[in-house]
Design goal:
The protein has 321 residues and is of the alpha/beta class. The protein folds into two domains: 221 residues, Spore Coat Polysaccharide Biosynthesis Protein SpsA, Chain A; 82 residues, no CATH class. It contains twelve helices and nine strands. A hairpin with a 6-residue loop joins strand 6 and strand 7.
Length: 321
């Protein structure tokens, strides 16, 4: 259906229902994987909100091919078409349609284990003190089906305070692992609109929520990440594109910091240090000595240990060139 600005009652959450918002762009050859895995869920009460981000292939035809299948399964199914922009903008097209008590947003080329939704809902129903939960994931090759090494660190799964671990890459942001309660999520975003950037979407969805609420981890691999050559997240970037990506992430994190009302000095210094350390690593990747040295002097204010290690590395690079 064409997007016509339709918006559900913001307080009209159907008890027990899980809303799955799935953004997709040019997914003709892989979209069936996630749709089939949603269709096969053991959990009985779901709505699927698929948002086509201006695809130029047969994505919409593939999506429409599942309409009768989802109807037969008893799942609500929306296909929303929008102009091409980015994943966060596509999610924004889907958020107004969410009516479920619980919210997930799996990637369009991944897959959910059959009991993935049911197990996470059961956890939240048994533990009403929690507003979210996550599972573990596994990575696989879609051509061979073989398991692959993870792209992200798992981290300490006993921890529940995950904001800084996610931001500082000590644990994973793998979107399909997380399930949030819809009501507290839309208290953060009452307009049902997350910040739109050409980077992220998981930072926008997760970080403000993790800043407010603890998130336990179920030690089960309930979500499969497709490692697909040529996918948007794995496309090799030019130097200019990578620098732009880092700039975009910095602006995004500044906006998230404002959403979290992060005004204390310790947090602000930590955000500043996160930016500087990333800049140093990027400059080091491209051998940009001027930017490396600039980042090192900025780093000195925040982390002496990293500053001295960085200086040793910088001097070594100068001596070996």
């Amino acid at each position: 259906m064409e997007d016509n600005g339709y918006q559900k009652n913001k307080l009209d959450y159907i008890k027990g229902r899980v809303s799955a918002v799935v953004p997709v762009f040019n997914g003709e050859f892989y979209l069936s994987t996630i749709l089939a895995s949603l269709l096969e869920q053991t959990y009985p009460l779901m709505e699927i909100i698929l948002v086509d981000d201006g695809s130029t292939d047969k994505t919409v035809q593939v999506a429409e091919g599942y309409r009768n299948k989802f109807a037969a399964r008893g799942y609500e199914y929306e296909v929303i078409r929008s102009a091409h922009k980015n994943a966060s903008a596509a999610i924004n097209q889907g958020l107004p349609y969410v009516t479920g008590e619980y919210l997930i947003w799996p990637d369009s080329d991944d897959r959910l284990e059959r009991d993935s939704v049911e197990k996470r809902v059961n956890f939240l129903q048994r533990h009403p003190q929690y507003q979210c939960v996550r599972s573990l994931s596994y990575y696989y090759d879609p051509k061979t089906g073989g398991l692959l090494s993870a792209d992200e660190k798992t981290g300490d799964i006993s921890k529940e305070d995950l904001f800084w671990d996610i931001l500082e890459s000590r644990t994973y942001v793998c979107c399909g692992c997380y399930m949030l309660r819809s009501e507290p999520f839309f208290e953060i975003y009452p307009e049902r609109h997350i910040p739109e950037y050409n980077v992220g979407q998981n930072f926008q969805m997760l970080l403000p929520f993790m800043f407010r609420y603890p998130c336990p981890t179920m030690p089960e691999r309930l979500y499969g990440v497709c490692v697909r050559e040529g996918s948007h997240s794995r496309r090799k970037l030019t130097r200019e594109e990578e620098y732009q990506k880092y700039d975009d992430y910095e602006m995004l994190v500044d906006e998230i910091s404002a959403i979290c009302q992060m005004r204390d000095g310790v947090s602000q210094r930590r955000i500043a240090y996160w930016k500087i350390k990333r800049r140093y690593c990027l400059a080091m990747k491209y051998g940009d000595r001027k930017q490396m040295l600039k980042a090192l002097w900025q780093m000195r204010k925040y982390g002496e240990k990293d500053f001295y290690h960085g200086m040793k590395d910088f001097i070594w690079r100068l001596m070996t060139k």
